[in-house]
Structures are given as structure tokens and as C-alpha cells.
Amino acid sequence: MQKEHKTWITWFKDNLKALFWAALIALGIRSFIAEPFNIPSGSMIPSLLVGDYLFVSKYSYGYSRYSLPFGLPLIPERIFYTQPERGDVVVFKTPADNKTDYIKRVIGLPGDTIQVINGLLHINGKPVKRTFKRTHVEKTFYGDISYTVYDEELPNGVIHEIMEISDDQPQDNTLPFIVPEEHFFMMGDNRDNSKDSRWDDIGFVPKQNLMGKAQFIFYSNNGYAPFLAFWNWGKSIRTERLFKGIH
Question: Which of 227, 226, 191, 189 minimizes the C-alpha distance to 89?
């Protein structure tokens, strides 16, 4: 009986130790290598859709306190820092509360002047090239909304799709924004449905708040059925988006 008791205690200790190391490894991967995120809103349509699940590389821009769970203040300054490039799709903590995760595209770098004039993005006084691509109709609770999809070419050659309802929506005409040092100007690709750096409650994003670069989509669900309803996977999983890179 004594022997059986010791065997059970040994088994419990071994499994507890294994769980501890597994949790520690998972925490390390999540904090320093990659973290999964899901897209809850349509601010990055057409590049990212509601229901996309993606991996964000945590090492792309170095590490800050926001690399750690709950923003633990164990990293006082950003370390191993590499500046984002214009056009990167980035997850960051919104400066409004330093808690909420946002995902947007880097449009303005430190020292840039950003302005939107009649819906057209201007960087450092020059209009950004925008080429018509197609029309898109989005079905909503309030009815169908027609959008125009453009290819936008940033000054460094990055081309990505944006979507506009029209060129006279709120924030389609702004004052010039001068990006401070060590800050970035972020915009959503769904330009008329994005709360981003054009709005006072978001503003410029400090480098300290950067969490990582969006790399690829590993799962996507259109909301037709929950994940456990496997019999409806054929109608709910967007197979064409699985393992799709984010540009």
C-alpha cells in the first residue's frame, strides 16, 4: 500500500512538472516568437476579414512590456528594436488605454507629414497613387453598401488594396499630421470604416505600443457556423484564405 501511494505521488509530481514546463514554453513562444490574433471588425477589409485568425511575429520590432502577458512592466524600454516599414500590418496597443489590441497598416513614419484630401492620401505633400480595381457590395443589417476597391501604392513601392464608400466621408479631408519621433501613423484599409490615427482618441502610436507584425492567416471562418459544428465546415471555413500571407 505504501508503495502504491508513493507511485501515485510520483506520477502526480511528474505530470505537474510536465504541465509547468509546457506552460512556460507556451508563454515564451507567445511572448517572444508568435501570438495568435483574430479579427473582430471590418476596419482592415479587404486585406483582413472578420473571422480571420492570424499569427503575429513578436520579434519583428523588438520587445516592450506589451510583448508580455497583461503588459507586465518587466521590460522598461523597447529592446532589440527594428523600425516598422511603411505598409506593414501591425498589431499594437491603442494609446487611448494601452490595453486594447488594434490592427492597422503603417502609413506614416517618424517625421512624415500625412494628410487626406478629398479621400486621397498624401504623404509628405505628394498624393499617393490610387488605381481603380473593382466595386464591392457589402451586405449589412441596414442594407447593401457599395464600395470602390483601389490598389494604393505607397512611396516605398508597397501595393495593397483599400476600400472606400466615397471621397466625402468623415476624415476624408484632414489637417496635416506631422508624425513625432518614435511614433507611427496608422490607417485601416477600409478607409471609411476605420478608427485610426486620423481620430483624436487614437492618434500617433508610440513605438513602445507595437506588439508585432501580422504574418499570415492560419484559419478563417465566415460566421456561418461555430468551430465545433464540423458538419457545416464546408460552408463556414474560407479555405481560400488558409495560410495566406498578409501584405
Answer: 189
